Amino acid sequence: MFSKAVKPEKTSDASLSATTGERKAPKPASLISQDLTLEGGIVGEGELHVDGVIRGDVRVGRLTLGDTGHIEGSVQAETVDIRGRIIGTITAKQVRLFGTAYVDGDITHEQLSVETGAFFQGRSLKFQRPAPVALAAPEPEVQSA
After folding, report:
1. Dihedral through CA 41, CA 113, CA 83, CA 94, nearest 10?
2. Each residue of 25-44: pLDDT tens digit?
3. Residue 4 above 60 pLDDT?
4. What is the Cα 100 distance to its own chain's centre?
5. Any idea what the Cα angle at residue 74 is, between residues 58 and 100, rounded to 5°?
6. Which 3 state secondary structure label does DSSP give 133?
7. Nearest 5°: CA angle at 36, between 33 and 39?
8. Out of 30, 68, 99, 107, which could bridge 117 as a Cys pair, Cβ 3.0 to 4.6 Å?
């Protein structure tokens, strides 16, 4: 209780490793630059910024599509920010269509925001959360005499 031992400082930094106490560098976003065209799918858990062209499906943690970015295929992510063009379906918790966005396909989402000027042709489908299951009241026991 009254020891003179030095206590380690407490930090609220989420980038500290729990086992070593060392700081981890934040992971940088991967970039598909404007002069690149990628044929095929991309799968990962990190962040992807696309200014080039992808012809294939994309499944990442976070997708940012720049003004010159173009995706032909389905997109799955936690968060999707679109300034460029997507032709295909989008499935994400949060989708933002900026004023320069062009989307031709269905969007399945929890949150969707669309700025003035954005083009969207397709269906907006809200995630269907399962209805809470109500517990049935126990039936009274009938006693026979």
Report:
1. -30
2. 677 889 999 999 999 999 99
3. no
4. 20
5. 90
6. coil
7. 125
8. 99
